[in-house]
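Hello again,

I reread your note about wanting to compare the complex against the isolated chains. To keep things tidy I'm splitting this into two emails, and this first one only covers the full assembly. Below are the input lines as submitted, including protein chains and any nucleic acid or small-molecule components. They are followed by the predicted structure of everything together. The single-chain runs will come separately.
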Amino acid sequence: MTLAQLGADVTRVDPIGGAADYHRWPLTAGGESIYWAGLNKGKQSVAVEMRSEQGQQLVRRLIIDAGILITNVTGRQWLSHSALSSHRADLIHLEVPGRPDGSTAVDYTVNAATGFPLVTGPAGSDGPVNHVMPAWDVSCGLYAALSILTALRHRDATGAGSAIRLPLDDVALATAANLGFLTEVMINGTRRPRLGNAIYGQYGRDFVSSDGVEFMVVALTARHFRDLTDLTGTATAVAAAEEKLGADFTDEGQRYQHRDVLDSLFAAWFRTQTAEQITAALSATSVLWERYRTFDEVIGTARVTDNPLFTALDQPGIGSYLAPGLPMSVDGVHRPARSAPALGEHTAEVLAARLGMGADEIDTLVESGVVAT
Amino acid sequence: MTLAQLGADVTRVDPIGGAADYHRWPLTAGGESIYWAGLNKGKQSVAVEMRSEQGQQLVRRLIIDAGILITNVTGRQWLSHSALSSHRADLIHLEVPGRPDGSTAVDYTVNAATGFPLVTGPAGSDGPVNHVMPAWDVSCGLYAALSILTALRHRDATGAGSAIRLPLDDVALATAANLGFLTEVMINGTRRPRLGNAIYGQYGRDFVSSDGVEFMVVALTARHFRDLTDLTGTATAVAAAEEKLGADFTDEGQRYQHRDVLDSLFAAWFRTQTAEQITAALSATSVLWERYRTFDEVIGTARVTDNPLFTALDQPGIGSYLAPGLPMSVDGVHRPARSAPALGEHTAEVLAARLGMGADEIDTLVESGVVAT
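Full-complex prediction:
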């Protein structure tokens, strides 16, 4: 989808009836998949019976015409790089298996094996806490788009194609290592504890107002921290604690190590203030903060309703709603969101335009069940 | 870092003494930042006093020579697109502010305002649960690399530069909307509940073995589900439950809706099996599963120790460890990881090579405190 948002003609080829994600929740009251519509914006859809030799032949021709393939199906000879590149030497072929050995894995199983669920959630609690945002799927999709753009630029310059493999599990492992979660254990032999909503190595956590509203508050720099002590009227108490502990709160690590003391000093102030008072007070400082929001609160804020990232999209079968484009603007402009296709909506159009097929030929393919429109 | 991993010459310009992330945890016993080393692999480092006019002038010249700028500093006139593009019309200028209005935000504050923390963690629990993996930072970094590659390809083709803005908050909002979390509320008026480790709209959750080991198990398709009922010897009981409930467990949504019934049937089997028995049994099926792992377990597995994604890296000040390259291989090859620079390590080299400065000129800049080496 990202490549379609960047302006590429992206054709998604599905089995007739749809792949496993075609009916994925959330659904509308009428049973249409909001999930599918959200992740296929701006693509063309072609439906082919890929268990038949004729269907495979058609898909092969489409790939050779396009010159780029992205697939999460691995181990099928007819879709392999060697089979396809014999027909088009400069093919860009990207496989996204679950694991490097080609076996299947999904975000939620990959995540279990990364280490993150066992350090997520309240300090002192037991058992894993899974993420709800499928971070590995999202990162993997972005790495996939990046791989294609890099290979395209390489092909532009040299004429050569690329055979790329991007296992979902390796996306997770590379990220966990880049961020220091794995390296820390390799170097220091220690792993960080479960911290609840505290931030490792920095001062940051959640606080509750007198009227029960939760805020996330982060003091990254010495200036943020000074502002936070001033705001909460705790400068004297914090300095006294600093002296008693022999600590230096200009150091981010020491603010983290002594967070329990700081938490109790700051929390006392938050508990006496309403959400409105806290919002006004924090807004006047350098402190980084946000009020926790539910999804239904988010859609009602100006961040969505008055943001050129979102444009009104009329999605057949689902309705009209505010849909995002790419998160970046280029030269001040966000490209508006485009609707997702119905399954097979572009079968006839693509076969005609890309493979030069006539209407009769396409009708025959439909009647024999090789494609669906 | 991603661009450096893709082969670009990336020069990171920092203030003398380092930016806010230079001492970020995790640290080694000797106080070196594992975090900084992990996220600056393969870059060159230049240290400049950017509060001085002379320092700003140097940085401007480096940007104009490079033709590409990525910055999270916004609102500084001397680094603005208009100021810089007057010296180089084809400049690619990427700003990454926290919010679209240019104000500061970090992953943990952005996340609080997305909606995710209020649906993460055990069903029925109160309060927010923050993610530990900074998913918005990671996604934003990948979108940044993608923006640069897209703009480069555009410049290759047309000669034109680009002014790009990529707010961290918009990365989070676009992703929450793409995945259906926001759209669902817009269309249906309902938001999903907090589900613990269950997966919304599908059958999947965690189970514990007789010896206390946790597994994540996902049955995405009808075949996965059949295999799970066969494995656990619950086919008859599941069929009886299906009939009694008037349900159709070939439908993924109905498996999700009746997950409590299914959970109890399957959990009974898991509780009677050791982790070893469960591993052997699940391995023989199509079911998607993983054993939950701690970070220290992860680094000891073949996924890390016998994976060409990781290469031995000698990082000065930190030591030798297995570091990841990019998660994708190209034509069967992973580029090996490269070490991160010491702060200012390349100041002299870059000033000489890019700006044609002589040794005397550089010495004068060092002595006057404009740069550090």
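For quick reference: Residues 135-158 of chain B form the longest helix (24 residues).

B.
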